[in-house]
From TrEMBL:
The keyword Transmembrane does not apply. Keywords: ATP-binding, Nucleotide-binding. Coiled coil: none annotated. GO terms for molecular function: ATP binding. The lineage of its organism: Eukaryota, Sar, Stramenopiles, Ochrophyta, Dictyochophyceae. InterPro entries: P-loop_NTPase, Pch2-like. GO terms for cellular component: chromosome; nucleus. This is ATPase AAA-type core domain-containing protein. GO terms for biological process: meiotic recombination checkpoint signaling; reciprocal meiotic recombination. The keyword ATP-binding applies. Gene3D superfamilies: P-loop containing nucleotide triphosphate hydrolases.
Length: 155
């Protein structure tokens, strides 16, 4: 049904596609977004349906509360605040983070390189690649002045 809807669009541009209220998909699909139109980086690029190489990714956004890993804080005299938070874990994909990636303004092709890295990492994990045979760094160091999107990017 989604593919039939996309065929009706004829031309794709980066951004959201509007699903009419009367369409049969409307009760089931909240949003359809075109996120890439080639690797040119031009947001005004239009691609015809017959030229497009479609990759559909369907997902349900989570509204679950984040979970915190806590450790007892022995310096406060045993207060009842639950301890120090070591980390916060969110169930992804998360409604709170929807659209966050699009707000990040990074140097040319940084987003593409980060996505390629993430896809490679997931492929290596899926194929159970032995890190002693194929060496690859599983760490990304984010650096820059405050307000440049490091925390948003890590989310």
């Amino acid at each position: 049904h989604v593919l039939a809807f996309l065929q009706q669009e004829c031309v794709f541009r980066i951004g959201c596609l509007v699903i009419p209220d009367e369409h049969e998909l409307k009760p089931y699909i909240e949003n359809i977004s075109v996120t890439h139109c080639g690797r040119s980086g031009r947001i005004d690029l239009a691609v015809s349906f017959w030229q497009a190489d479609l990759h559909l990714h369907l997902y349900q956004l989570s509204d679950l509360e984040p979970e915190e890993d806590l450790v007892d804080d022995e310096t406060d005299g045993g207060g009842d605040d639950g301890g120090l938070s070591l980390c916060t874990q969110w169930t992804l994909p998360r409604r709170d983070f929807q659209g966050l990636w699009d707000t990040l303004i990074l140097e040319d092709h940084v987003k593409d390189r980060l996505l390629d890295y993430a896809v490679s990492a997931m492929l290596f994990a899926k194929k159970k690649v032995n890190s002693h045979v194929i060496s690859w760094n599983r760490v990304v160091l984010l650096h820059g002045p405050p307000g440049t999107g490091k925390t948003s990017l890590s989310k």
